[in-house]
Design brief:
Elements (H helix, E strand, L loop, with lengths): L1 H8 L6 H31 L6
Length: 52
Amino acid sequence: MPEAFLAALDGLGHDPDTAMAVYNTLTAYVHGAVDSEIMLTQMLRARGWSTQ
């Protein structure tokens, strides 16, 4: 998966360190957003509230 993301960045002219920094930043953001949604859904279900 990192290879496909880095390949997408390849034509933008970034040096390898910058490309990895962009990759790390984006994956950290996505992981944080997903973790937040999972925790919210679990909390709502635990309280018997709707998740829709």
